[in-house]
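Need residues for this backbone.
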């Protein structure tokens, strides 16, 4: 029986097909990586511009104006939210205060400490400043964002108003 090997033409054709398939796979992986990095940037910017400031304002609005300690780079206020994120009321229907929720800016990160936590935890990064200032019975939360991501860059100020219960 005669043994037959591959000819040079067959070998070149197999190499060309392998190259085309490899190029297509690398292109697909690069496109997927681009979409993934763009999604990471979208989530990080959403946190900076909307989700975290809105969450702080929601908690602050449920506090009373007398229980807010506002400053530049740090602030705290009483919270009636418990560990399960439920708003607690006492028998008379008044907020059942759980303790102080505090925030501080440290090294470009916003740290939050709830009353039941032992140590503060990072809830937001890419910040150059944060402040809570009283104005006309309400509070202006200002978050200075300095985000340089994989596919996007955002430098700007995000502001939201909170009007605690009087």
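Answer:
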């Amino acid at each position: 029986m005669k043994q037959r090997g591959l000819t040079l033409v067959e070998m070149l054709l197999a190499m060309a097909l392998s190259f085309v398939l490899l190029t297509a796979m690398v292109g697909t992986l690069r496109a997927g990586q681009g979409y993934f990095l763009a999604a990471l940037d979208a989530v990080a910017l959403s946190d900076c511009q909307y989700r975290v400031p809105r969450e702080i304002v929601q908690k602050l609005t449920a506090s009373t104006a007398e229980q807010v300690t506002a400053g530049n780079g740090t602030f705290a206020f009483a919270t009636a939210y418990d560990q399960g994120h439920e708003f607690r009321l006492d028998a008379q229907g008044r907020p059942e205060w759980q303790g102080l929720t505090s925030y501080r800016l440290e090294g470009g990160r916003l740290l939050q400490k709830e009353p039941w936590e032992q140590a503060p935890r990072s809830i937001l990064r890419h910040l150059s400043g944060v402040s809570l200032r009283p104005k006309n019975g309400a509070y202006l939360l200002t978050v200075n964002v300095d985000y340089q991501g994989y596919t996007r860059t955002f430098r700007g100020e995000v502001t939201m108003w909170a009007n605690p219960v009087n």
